[in-house]
C-alpha cells in the first residue's frame, strides 16, 4: 500500500519571471593604460554577468556593446568610472541606444581587436 507520488501535480502556474534584458552601445574616452584596462574591463563585465564586447578604436577611445540587466549595466559603468587606477584617466563613459532586448546575442563578454 504505497502512496503514489504524483510529481506532475507540482506544476508551477506562475510563469518563471526572467529579468528584463537590456542592450546598449557604449563609449569610453580617456587615456587609460591599454592592456591593464582591457583586462580589467573584461574581468568586471564577466563577474557582473554582462555579455558583449569592448574594442579599442584609438589611443583614448574604446567602444563596444553591453547586454544584461539595466542595473548591472549601470554597475559596470560605475566600476569603470570609479576604479582607483583609472579614475583620473577615464574622462567619459557614454551609454547609447539603451533598449530592452528579447534574448542575448552574445555568449560572453570579450575583447575584440580593433581592425
UniProtKB/TrEMBL annotation:
**SUPFAM superfamilies attached to this UniProt entry:** Acylphosphatase/BLUF domain-like
Please give the Pfam families that the UniProt record associates with this protein: Acylphosphatase
Coiled-coil portions: none
Q: Which domain of life is it from?
A: Eukaryota
Domain Acylphosphatase-like: start-end pairs: 23-113
Q: Which family does it belong to?
A: Belongs to the acylphosphatase family.
Q: What is this protein called?
A: Acylphosphatase-1
Protein's organism:
Drosophila albomicans (Fruit fly)
Amino acid at each position: 500500500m504505497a502512496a503514489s507520488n504524483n510529481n506532475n501535480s507540482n506544476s508551477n502556474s506562475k510563469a518563471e519571471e526572467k529579468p528584463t534584458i537590456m542592450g546598449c552601445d557604449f563609449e569610453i574616452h580617456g587615456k587609460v593604460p591599454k592592456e591593464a584596462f582591457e583586462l580589467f574591463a573584461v574581468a568586471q563585465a564577466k563577474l557582473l554577468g554582462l555579455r558583449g564586447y569592448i574594442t579599442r578604436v584609438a589611443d583614448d577611445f574604446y567602444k563596444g556593446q553591453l547586454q544584461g540587466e539595466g542595473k548591472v549595466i549601470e554597475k559596470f559603468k560605475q566600476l569603470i568610472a570609479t576604479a582607483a587606477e583609472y579614475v583620473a584617466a577615464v574622462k567619459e563613459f557614454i551609454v547609447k541606444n539603451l533598449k530592452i532586448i528579447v534574448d542575448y546575442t552574445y555568449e560572453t563578454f570579450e575583447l575584440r581587436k580593433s581592425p
